[in-house]
Amino acid sequence: EIVLTQSPGTLSLSPGERATLSCRASQNISGSYLAWYQQKPGQAPRLLIYGASSRATGIPDRFSGSGSGTDFTLTISRLEPEDFAVYYCQQYGSSRWTFGHGTKVEIK
Amino acid sequence: EVQLVESGGGLVQPGGSLRLSCGASGFTFSTYSMKWVRQAPGKGLEWVSHISSSSSSIYYADSVKGRFTISRDNAENSLHLQMNSLRDEDTAVYYCAREGIGRTLDYWGQGTLVIVSS
């Protein structure tokens, strides 16, 4: 089973700053099946990025994804107040869907 | 507008059973694969089960295999999860989600809380 390790666990930043979140897979995965989600307290997750680098419908262009193989990154270019949340990466392979444990982006 | 609405959660004793449902609207339900994902209190997301559009492909996480059964009724635009032999560790918010491009989960319901406790 592929394990996704997200780092850091918590990222403390100020509005306007750049956020860089990492997702590392325990083995090579297809970038086609790497996604990122945002979850705010009391809400369901929201799809941000699919195929490692494509923004989902309605997602602002300050969100970008990159990476391949085992290393993937979600970048938020300039944090807006509404971006403080938990972010999860997710992959599909061998009829299994797995999530990372999440990175919390909190206000510094 | 895509809408997914879960129901059926509640308090159940260990060893008991519960049936969750998810009503879908705003899209052609019969053409999409669907999933259940759960989130224990204060924890991360865990994929539970997948069912293809025609129910021809069904998969389960190892943690629920043999205890949970996913099904769907395309005529009623509904998704179900029959949960048997429930354990304390099954306590979670259960979300239904639609499969989108790249095997993602592009739309989610608001979730239904299942508490397994004596």
What does this protein look like?
Helices cover 0% and strands 58% of the residues of chain A. Chain A is mainly beta. In chain A, strand 5 (46-50) and strand 6 form a beta hairpin. Chain A is globular and about 40 Å long. By secondary structure, chain B is mainly β. Helices cover 0% and strands 52% of the residues of chain B. Chain B is built from no helices and eleven strands. Chain B has strands spanning 3-7, 10-12, 18-25, 34-39, 45-51, 58-60, 68-73, 78-83, 92-99, 105-108, 112-116. In chain B, the strands form two sheets. In chain B, strands 2, 4, 5, 6, 9, 10 and 11 form a seven-stranded mixed β-sheet that branches. Chain B has a four-stranded antiparallel β-sheet with strand order 1-3-8-7, with no helix packed on it. The termini of chain B are far apart. Chain A binds chain B through residues 32-33, 35, 37, 39, 43-47, 50-51, 54, 56, 88, 90, 92, 95-102, and chain B through 35, 37, 44-47, 50, 57, 59, 61, 95, 100-111.
Oligomeric state of shown chains: heterodimer
The topology string of helices and strands of chain B comes to EEEEEEEEEEE
Q: What sort of overall outline of chain A do the alpha carbons produce when their principal axes are compared?
A: globular
Tertiary shape of chain B: globular
Number of helices of chain B: 0
Q: What portion of residues of chain A is helical?
A: under 10%
Supply the number of helical segments of chain A. Answer: 0
Structure characteristics:
heterodimer; A: 108 residues; mainly beta; 7-stranded mixed sheet; 3-stranded antiparallel sheet; 10 strands; 0% helix; B: 118 residues; 4-stranded antiparallel sheet; globular
Brief summary:
The complex is a heterodimer of chains A (108) and B (118). With 108 residues, chain A is an all-beta fold. Chain A has strands at residues 4-7, 10-13, 19-29, 34-39, 46-50, 54-55, 63-76, 86-93, 96-99, 103-107.
